[in-house]
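Subject: for your reference before the review

Hello V.,

The reviewers asked for a structural picture of the protein, and I figured it would be easier to keep everything in one thread rather than splitting it across files. Below is the amino acid sequence we used in the manuscript, unchanged from the supplementary table.
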Amino acid sequence: MRTDHPAEDEIRANFEEMLASVRGGGGLRTDTGLDNETELALWAIARAFPEVPEELVTAARTEFAAQLDGSHRRARREALARMSEELDRKATQ
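And here is what came back from the structure prediction:
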């Protein structure tokens, strides 16, 4: 079990390795440092095998870019903040 977070260069290498795996009919391994959105895009490729449309590969690369630039993390934080605000609002009613 991994106890630290992988560095960005390791995450990039892991993404390329997992992309090659699913494009070849394989699956994903754990502890890659890839987030849920990126993994879901890779699983879509695995499900489409052996006829993998290039659009799915592009989508996986787009999701991975959003992971790296922090977009996924920001969206999760914003969703949690909205849920928290909603719960607080309901609690005060």
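For the response letter, the relevant points are probably these. The radius of gyration is 16 Å. The chain has a mean pLDDT of 93.

Happy to draft the paragraph if you're swamped.

O.
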